[in-house]
From TrEMBL:
SUPFAM superfamilies: (Trans)glycosidases, Glycosyl hydrolase domain. This is Alpha-galactosidase. It comes from Triticum turgidum subsp. durum (Durum wheat). GO terms for molecular function: alpha-galactosidase activity. Belongs to the glycosyl hydrolase 27 family. It is an enzyme of class 3 (hydrolase). One of its GO terms (biological process) is polysaccharide catabolic process.
Length: 123
């Protein structure tokens, strides 16, 4: 699953309205992965559909994906996701079904092979 995400990243510039990259198939429910790995797989698959651009309304999608075998704190800064450094956003955690405010960066503690997926909406 990780290698498919890495391969898809190489083709991101070809994705756009009316076309997207096809990283093969979803393996969710086929066995062989943990719940965290399935969640990461599904999140990365969804992200691949918008890999090359923003969502409507100036929103951004962000996945903090822990590829390591231990708990890790992952941080991304607004400059990495195309937001002004001083922007305040509402971050919607798509897996936890909760929202919170953030400014300048987004940081989360992520379990091994798991991910956190957010929609960032500028205020």
């Amino acid at each position: 699953m990780t290698s498919r995400a890495d391969q898809n990243d190489r083709w991101a510039s070809y994705a756009g309205p009316g076309g997207w990259n096809d990283p093969d198939m979803l393996e969710v429910g086929n066995g062989g992965m943990s719940e965290a790995e399935y969640r990461s797989h599904f999140s990365i698959w969804a992200l691949a559909k918008v890999w090359a651009g923003p969502l409507s309304g100036n929103r951004k999608v962000v996945v903090l994906w822990n590829r390591q075998g231990h708990q890790a704190t992952i941080t991304t800064h607004w400059s990495k996701v195309g937001l002004p450094v001083s922007a305040a956003v509402t971050a919607r955690d798509l897996w936890a079904h909760s929202s919170f405010s953030a400014q300048g960066q987004l940081s989360a503690s992520v379990a091994p092979h798991d991910c956190k997926m957010y929609i960032l909406t500028p205020k």
